[in-house]
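LOG
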Amino acid sequence: MDGFVSEIENEKSKILIELVSGSAEERIRKLVRAGLADALTWLKPIRALSTGQRYRAELALMLEKAEAETYLGSSVRSGSDVCIFLDEFGSSLDEVTRKSIAFSIKRWHDDHPGVAIVIATCDHTVERDLQPDVVITMRGLRAPKIRERGENLSSKIENQESKMAFSLTDRLEIHDGRRSDYLIFAPLHYREGRLGFVYKVFLLRDRDQDVGIAVFAYPCIEHSLRTKLLPAHAKSDAKTKALWLNQNLRTLSRFVIDEPYRATGASSWFLKRCLARMPGMWIECQTAMGRFTGFLERSGFTRHGCVAPDKHARKVLEALYPGEDEASLRGRCFRSSQVASDLMARTEDSRVVRATKKFAQRWSERSSANRRAFESVQNADAAAFVRSHAETLARLVALRFLTHAEYFLRASPDSKFSSECGS
């Protein structure tokens, strides 16, 4: 992977999402499959990434280039002519991250079987997650020991289902949690604001460490997409509607998995078991990441519609780039450093300054952390405020515009409204 390391080293000033190519959705999917399923991370400069994040970024670039080579060369040679070689695989990573990335590579290779991947490592424990076709064990001066797929491996794994799962799910446990447990996970979530009226909290635990959380809350009474899906329920009077919602429906308010466990199937493993502890309940979720990660649909949810991007972020971008359509504005968000420069250059434009200050005010109202970040927004001179916070504002605007939410619903087969929600 050395060539990719040097390539990233040369791009330290870029933000992560600028490294990969394609449309907004294609870029996000390429990062997500490498385990970078965090909107806040997408907008970080390369120099600010942790060791594990940089390794995953290298992996995303490597897989993108391998796909391009396979596609471009498919008419003149076989896909097996494309070979990826990884030396000293994961030597700088902790155990969980190393196994997680190994599993991500295996999943990618399942979809691209024509690409050969050769991995050299001293850590034999990644074998289960890699599921290699051939294992060659070097034994000093003695002849190498060669094993083909299935030899000595299947006996260690109880059944086919666990054989295909991420190895560390064997030691994961689910425990009941409390509202206060979310505080340590809140910085890992792209969405700020309050949790609402919490119904249940579940913790995902690896040995003695909490590595994930699911927060279920009571729903709001009105939701436009829910109204379209359940017209009979929508026609009920307010009292009947509130009673049915309180008895039958919950909102998946927050769902966070620690970064090393992402892109491993641990999310759907965790969510399915949480849902099993709430039998008979309808569960709804409004999220910006669901369509990219796919774990909601693997857990029985159906995607039913899209919520418009943050209107205040849109107004900032429309003021900066009048006349551009949504696709063009999304493209602008991949270059937040340029958006910051454009903000700095347009501080004499009252429309830009007014829209940007309004966005900052709304952002600062959502949590105490945001208020501290923009504590001067209320009384500051608008133009001076934009100049002093241009880089931060540009990244937040990009984040809010790129991560517009979609509505997912998991229907309960026991409910009389289930037949309404077939589409």
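LOG (cont.) second protein
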Amino acid sequence: MRTSKRLDRLGKGVFQRNDFRKNAYRLANKNNGLPPLLDLSLGSSDLLPPENVLEAIKKALNEPGSSAYCLHAATRPFRESVAVWCQRRFGVSIDPEREVQFLVGSQEGTAHLPLSLLDPGDVGLILNPSYPSHRGGMLLADAQIESLLLSAEKDWRPDFGSLQLSQLDQLRLILFGFPHNPTAQVGRQSWLDEAMSLGVRNQIVIAHDNPYLDLSLDGDAPALLRCEGWREWGIEFFSLSKAWSLGGFRLAFAIGAENVLTALQRVKGVVDFNQSLALQAGAIEALTNSFGWPAQILGTYRNRRDRTLKALALMGWQIPSPSMAMYLWMPLPGWAKARGWNDEVMAAELLEQTGIALTPGSGFGSGGAGWLRLALVHQADDLEAAVARMKVWWDAHS
């Protein structure tokens, strides 16, 4: 069957190949008695959501409207709760009618935004490495993609000052996010201030993807809502997936300039309806009565981070300590480079020999080549057991 050239540009990529290998390992495990697959490649939390949030969803499921289609107007109670949360979280007052948009996951928002703002050939900027939907959304919009290369030597700081005037004249959209996936660095508020200032001066929409806002282990996470000018040229995406462990429920929202949100809403109007009112009831409960929940789970992630780093160091793999919860960003070890392995080869070998799945960093862009991402989505004892399982293979190769 003939498919679109647009789909060809999206490609299949590292993630699909990684998923294929995981499925192949599961099948082999059934027949050969291999160790069970331990999937540390996805940032899908193993922690349960707050009990009161689940109870709010259960209760609302019995309401007659819970199974009906939900148009934008019906999301008003949710948007009002977002406005209260925003005032409490940032001390920023927003208009729930004009400055808030419900989303079916923040990834949906970042992928649809370029379709609402860019014509074919328009220029958008992303970071390299970056979350795949940032590039994917621009490819779907037939945009010309520029990227800012991040590096460990510069602490993964985006050098917006390196953009030439000729580049700024062409840019229509800058899309990025801190705390940063995949490098697990929290980032600094000054980086967002610099980007937003560029946006205001050059009439560029600044889109900040912020699903990890409340998962900073070291320092305060930056936010676009703290920057001057976001009401004119900014939009920020937030999610309940990570901090409230509601990933599968697909509950998120955007806060931003009215004209930007209106454009995004028009695209969403022909693509999807919103989530069930029952799920929105859970989101309202989370933002309102479980406001402090994210702070309660940070200790769990800190313990997982510290114990896993220690176990890896004892094995001989020195990993930079991440300032953001949920991930380790792991450099390819010297012995693997000496064998001619890249990050995808190492991930494939590790999976085949030990049953432990990591994410090759090159799946996030060329700037992630030579790195692997490990998600801290199992109990600390299981993570230490994973390292113990790795060690036999590591010792045989290093």
